[in-house]
Design a protein that fits this description.
Blueprint: E1 7-13, H1 19-31, E2 35-41, H2 49-56, E3 77-83, H3 86-90, E4 97-103, H4 116-141
Parallel strand pairs: 1-2, 1-3, 3-4
């Protein structure tokens, strides 16, 4: 792959409403256009407004992203496919095709019942976990082997 080609990363979860949407937004933000980034769900449910709010709290806007079905990516290959929930990982289809598959088992913040403040805090907690995964992913991916240039 030439240095001008972007690596492609696909985030997959069940609903493509929260965790995969946050991951997509973070990778776009932190990598500064180094990757082609997509996300989808095995059963898409629409973009979760609390996920949008949690990202807006740290000045990242994902409100223009849309919830997509994995079926929209049939026949597409990616450098990385990352499942961000256990349910999607367990039922992960053989498509999309990936050079590397990763799994990050991240709690679903929509499962928490409680006050509005408690739910907001849970979305922030999950958001911060995803940010850590994305930063580590970028660090690990940038540590590609370098050619030996000794004379």
């Amino acid at each position: 792959m030439s240095t001008l080609e972007k690596k492609s990363v696909f985030f997959l979860c069940t609903g493509n409403s929260c965790r995969s949407q946050m991951a997509e937004g973070f990778l776009r933000y932190f990598s500064r256009d180094r990757y082609e980034v997509s996300s989808a769900g095995t059963y898409p449910m629409g973009l979760n407004s609390r996920a949008v709010e949690a990202m807006q709290d740290i000045d990242i806007d994902i409100s223009d992203q849309r919830s997509q079905s994995i079926d929209e990516f049939e026949g597409v290959s990616f450098d990385y496919v990352v499942t961000v929930c256990d349910r999607a990982n367990e039922s992960c289809p053989t498509t999309p095709v990936a050079l590397t598959r990763l799994h990050w088992g991240i709690d679903d913040p929509t499962n928490l019942s409680g006050s509005s403040d408690e739910r907001r805090a849970e979305f922030a907690r999950v958001r911060d976990i995803i940010a850590g995964h994305i930063k580590q992913f970028i660090r690990d991916d940038s540590q590609e082997p370098q050619a030996d240039v000794r004379s």
